Amino acid sequence: MIAEKINTPSATIIDVRTISEFNSGHVNGSINIPLDQIPNKIGSLKKMSRPLIICCRSGMRSGSATQFLTKEGFDEVYNGGAWQTVQKTLK
Question: What are the DSSP calls for 68-85, one per residue?
């Protein structure tokens, strides 16, 4: 199911790792919003096309971000897990 969401043409991939982690490698076309900045970016996130696929190094931070956004009323938000997994899943 997550593979289907990742490959949805309107999907937005958000990487919640630090800027330096993101700069060392990331999913092509993904947006870097470090986890600690997610609460400050609610307005921007609401304007992004869905589904939102959240990724990080292992899936822990993306899981936290996904839970937070769901509690904030976001729909179609998914924990993509590790960014490398998301990259491999993209067609």
Answer: HHHHTT--SEEEEEEHHH
In the set 35, 56, 69, 77, the catalytic residue is: 56
Domains and CATH numbers, the chain: 2-89 (3.40.250.10)
For residue 39, is the peptide bond before it cis, meaning its omega torsion is within 30 degrees of 0?
Answer: no
56 is catalytic: yes
Distance (Å) of CA 30 to CA 1, 71, 73, 83: 20, 23, 22, 9
pLDDT for the residue 54:
98
pLDDT tens profile 16-49: 999 999 999 999 999 999 999 999 999 999 999 9
